[in-house]
Amino acid sequence: MEVCEGVVHARGRLHGGEVWLRYPSVGATEQLLLAGAVISEPVEVVNPAREPEVMDLARLLSAMGAEISFSEDRITIQGGKLRGTGHHVIPDRIEAGTYLLAGAITGGEVEVVGARPEHLTALLVKLEECGVGIAVEGRTICLKARVPWSGVEVETAPYPGFPTDLQPQFTSFLALARGRSVIWERVFESRFGHVGELLRMGARITLQGQAILIEGVEGLRGAEVVATDIRAGAALVLAGLAAHGETRINGLDHLRRGYENIEGKLAQLGAEVWEEEPSVT
Asked: Has residue 43 got a pLDDT over 80?
């Protein structure tokens, strides 16, 4: 295997073996599951990720004929010839969490139907710690915001910890909290692209190593901002919903990768959100 001009070139045949992950990466675990499912020799993945999405992929591959088992510190995969099957993909916990935070940051009420509350425990616990009302009934999560809400300390971590993919959105929410908040980013070293844009909207945020220090403000103001990635885009949408005045967000291609029809869903909740074609000069 070699990398040439940014392209990975691989030759030869995959074989079984034991793979140690220094960090329980979701992407690496999923790639190893897929690879192990199509080779005849057993593969063991030590220190794998156990996010719901990883478990869901394992269930799919098992239904297709792969033998996959989980123990305390590893996944064992015995692959071979796969067959077709039917599978219901689990609900997107990050999308569900984003809409819950949309209700919270605007001081409103939101009901998310069809979610898996057990996949969002870390977020729901922190929202309740902030003073937000949460009620769960089956696959439905009801949120009722209470203004003002309190600041908290949060640390991102692999599942079942607080998801890094909700850190930017939670940063927007805490920008309007009462008092001081701290978010420790322990998963992605440089997931701070949203911070500079939130500062343009009036947030009081300081970066200190892997810590995001937030002093809550009474209000944000609309501004023209740029989404640098999927979750940063979602964070700016939430900030724009709560801000005074109009917010224009550029870089929507990122947002579309993670959210289907986000403007339509937010409009159903009463938001004034629309997409404009870029002007041609």
From this structure: yes
